[in-house]
Amino acid sequence: MRTTKLYLCALAIGLVSLVGFTSCLSDDDNNNNNQYREMTALEKEIALSKAAGYYSGKFYFYNVENKLDSVATDVSITASDSLLTTKIPKEPLNAFIHQFSLPETTLAIFDQAPSPELKGVLHPYWNQYLEAYFYTFIYTYVNNTVTMSFNVDETPHTVIYKFKDILYGSYGEEYVCYAQWDNNAFACNVLLESIQLDDSLFPINACMSLSVKR
Predict the structure, then answer these.
(1) Which residue has the higher pLDDT, 172 or 76?
(2) Of 176, 170, 181, 157, nearest to 28 (Cα)?
(3) DSSP-derived secondary structure for the chain
(4) β-bridge partners, 168
(5) Is the pTM of this model over 0.70?
(6) DSSP letters of 112-139?
(7) CA distance 74 to 149
(8) pLDDT tens-digit profile of 102-117?
(9) pLDDT in tens, 8-33
(10) Which residues neighbour 95 within 8 Å (Cβ) at sequence distance 6 or greater?
């Protein structure tokens, strides 16, 4: 079983309509002290209130041919508990599993595995230019490990999806759970570490992204 390579999926893929999103908050803090400052408690509350709602758009990933692909997705954000909820589409998960040399019977079983619902808590982090042109968030997973049971031809199976807050690329790149809201558009990345089907563990290490609008 070979290890799936880390997909260097820049979050900008899913941020076509958003401007100025950066990959490293610490670097921005050092280089743009005149442009960024800590949000106040009230500003954080306003940021979450504005971002709250239901969104639809695209989930971006690299397919089995290692080409950029996308599939429709939905996202909900609730202001009361800062909760981001999204169901990971099955298409990218199937693409990742098909990177491995597996028997057709195993692939057929995974094709019937349920998609995981991912939840994360949004944390407003920076406010650019002291005005609400856009809001940047980091988020932490509520359920970074999602375990789901299902049956195929009356035989029970279990699939476990494990997500991470940080992944590292082959050149030391750091991919963190960032999200951004701008004018009723929302985007974030999703970091999938591994998929376990019954007793077989598949290291995925993929950075995916989504871009949705209200």
Answers:
(1) 76
(2) 176
(3) -PPPPPB---GGGG-TT-----S-HHHHHHH-TTTEEEPPHHHHHHHHHHH-EEEEEEEEEE-TTS-EEEEEEEEEEETTTTEEEEEPPHHHHHHHHTTS---HHHHHHHHTSPPPEEEEEEEEEEEETTS-S-EEEEEEES-SEEEEEEEETTEEEEEEEEE-SEEE-TTS-EEE-EEEEETTEEEEEEEEEEEEETTEEEEEEEEEEEEEE-
(4) 174
(5) yes
(6) TSPPPEEEEEEEEEEEETTS-S-EEEEE
(7) 23
(8) 999 999 999 999 999 9
(9) 344 443 343 333 333 333 344 444 45
(10) 61, 62, 63, 64, 69
Q: Are 74 and 107 in contact (CB under 8 A)?
A: no
Q: What's the mean per-residue pLDDT of the chain?
A: 80
CB 121 within 8 A of CB 140: yes
117 in Cβ contact with 146 (< 8 Å)? yes
Which token pair is 209?
Answer: 């992204």
Residue 208, token pair as written in the block? 């995916």
Q: Give CA–CA dist 161/195, Å, rounded.
A: 5
Q: How far does CA 139 lie from the centroid of its chain? A: 10
